[in-house]
Design a protein that fits this description.
alpha+beta; Beta-Lactamase; Arc Repressor Mutant, subunit A; 2 domains; five-stranded antiparallel β-sheet; 8 helices; 5 strands; elongated
């Protein structure tokens, strides 16, 4: 597996050596995964970058994974896949979004690990399993990546071989998903802080413009913004941005 073109994460082969004669201990694996999570955090700037880095590192780190994707379930019906590693992963997620069923969706919504040993023998999602098998996907391994209110995410691994994901794959994958979730949460928190600071600045600018335009004090200017937000059912920061974009006016 090659490193993503955006350079968001290096190959993790230096962290996990599956070809060695001595299997890594659980303690060593945990240490290695923590180091990988630290690298993911430090090298990722936003949600798209961290999700791409997690997907690429998963294929590198988890035994027998050939393809990877991250499925996001937002609200009750919106299913998207912002990051895909490999064509089969893309087709798998497209099928689940179209059919509104499948292991990735279930893993995300139920915060559970899902294993499909052989698509030809799995009857939990018959429409998806039949279509996926026709594409050449024979086994899958899905982990819940995060839960935020009504939004959920799952990390999905695919193989063209049946019974590809053994106990080692599941153990390493579980550790990887746990540390990846921490890395993702850290990047999301940084994004939210940046967004909050940006919104505060925009609201401050809009307040200043309203104070000057209508000879209002700071409290009255903010109340005007809040009323416009409520009346238009628009976020306060978006209303403020519209005021700033409109300019001083007359």
């Amino acid at each position: 597996m090659t490193t993503p073109s955006d350079g968001s994460v290096d190959s993790s082969s230096d962290l996990l050596d599956h070809g060695s004669d001595t299997a890594p201990t659980l303690a060593n694996l945990s240490t290695q995964m923590a180091e990988l999570a630290r690298r993911l955090r430090s090298e990722s700037r936003d949600t798209e970058t961290i999700l791409r880095a997690i997907s690429a590192a998963a294929v590198e780190s988890i035994p027998h994974a050939e393809y990877a994707s991250i499925t996001l379930v937002e609200g009750s019906s919106s299913i998207t896949s912002p990051v895909l590693i490999g064509d089969l992963a893309a087709e798998s997620d497209r099928l689940q979004a179209e059919l509104q069923e499948g292991p990735c969706v279930t893993s995300a919504l139920q915060a559970d690990t899902i294993v499909i040993d052989d698509m030809l023998d799995d009857d939990r999602w018959p429409r998806f399993s039949n279509a996926a098998a026709e594409l050449g996907i024979r086994s899958m391994l899905c982990f819940c990546l995060y839960v935020e209110g009504n939004n959920f995410g799952a990390l999905n691994l695919h193989s063209t071989r049946p019974h590809a994901f053994d106990d080692e794959s599941q153990s390493i994958g579980s550790l990887f998903a746990a540390h990846a979730a921490i890395a993702f949460s850290s990047v999301r928190e940084k994004e939210q802080i940046r967004s909050a600071l940006t919104n505060r600045d925009i609201i401050g600018q809009a307040k200043g413009m309203l104070m000057e335009r209508y000879s209002l004090n700071a409290d009255d200017a903010f109340q005007l913004l809040a009323r416009l937000s409520q009346d238009s059912n628009t976020k306060l920061a978006d209303v403020a941005a519209q005021v700033v974009q409109a300019g001083p006016g007359e």
